[in-house]
């Protein structure tokens, strides 16, 4: 059980589970509208991209674990990254369902869909900003290490 509490082992386990799950879920398109560009990506690819991202982050945590300042900040980084990724995916899925419903009910208010687009963009922006937590943790760890080395000299 102690092995699972190491952050890189947890990430590898989660990435493997996501890859396995991606083979058994039905195919659904996720629609993301960024300003004037409309992106369509399948949910399977979205889950596999997250798994690849988790493998890369696990490798970074494995290589840099001795240089990080706070383990709690690492867990916050991982939990927020995964949560915001799934939140953006879920909201995009809901928006695509609302588009299908709007075609059937002729309820195509721009403000109604702009609200969902704003939520998706906030989740994506939050995901990108949360990635700086790892860099902050690394810089703080290197600074602490530098000060502790200077005291010993």
* Number of helical regions: 5
Distance between the termini: 39 Å
Number of strand elements: 2
Strand content: 5-15%
Describe the global form: flat
Strand order of the largest sheet: 1-2
Structure write-up:
The protein has 153 residues and is mainly alpha-helical. The protein has one domain (7-152). It contains 5 helices and 2 strands. The protein has a two-stranded antiparallel ribbon with strand order 1-2. Helix 1 packs antiparallel against helix 2 and helix 3 (71-105) packs antiparallel against helix 4 (110-130). It starts with 6 loop residues before the first helix and ends with a helix. The mean pLDDT is 77.
Short recap of the structure:
The protein is built from 5 helices and 2 strands. It has 153 residues and is mainly α.
Keywords:
mainly alpha; 8% strand; 153 residues; two-stranded antiparallel ribbon; flat; 5 helices
What layout of secondary structure does this protein have?
Blueprint: H1 7-22, E1 29-34, E2 37-42, H2 43-64, H3 71-105, H4 110-130, H5 132-152
Antiparallel strand pairs: 1-2
